[in-house]
């Protein structure tokens, strides 16, 4: 079966649309799940998942919009500009658990088919970090991007918000 036939997302005009549904998995359970599946976790991502600020939901289906970096000039790949564009599109901050649901749902090959290397979930920062999922030659990863004024993103990135 071709990857076209099984896609669980669409890409239109630089915006990827998809849905994920939460299942009440807490941060420590996500860590155990990912380690069992061979998904590597950066230390800052583990710290976010262990934080009391990481609050899972149950049975919530989120309509996610990922703004591709191609929508921005290289100089505008900063959180402030990306959030302003999301606001213009009436998008909101997602729950941090969206990153875990992405990592569970999408393989590195699917993320590559989206035209992305890294998907940064633009949730309310936890310990100044935003969870992200990224593809790497060593396999699937979950990381955390610093959310500060001096942080810039890359042309292969996508930025996840919810409707």
Based on the model shown, name its key terms:
globular, 163 residues, 29% helix, 8-stranded mixed β-sheet, alpha+beta, 6 helices
Description:
The protein contains six helices and eight strands. The chain is α+β, with helices and mostly antiparallel strands. It has one domain. Strands 1-2-4-8-5-6-7-3 form an eight-stranded mixed sheet. α2 runs antiparallel to α3. It starts with a helix and ends with a strand. The mean pLDDT is 94.
Could you provide a short overview of the structure?
This protein is an alpha+beta fold and 163 residues long. The protein is 29% helix and 32% strand.
Describe the protein's topology.
Blueprint: H1 3-6, E1 9-12, E2 15-23, H2 27-36, E3 40-41, H3 43-50, E4 58-68, H4 79-88, H5 97-105, H6 108-113, E5 118-121, E6 129-136, E7 139-146, E8 157-162
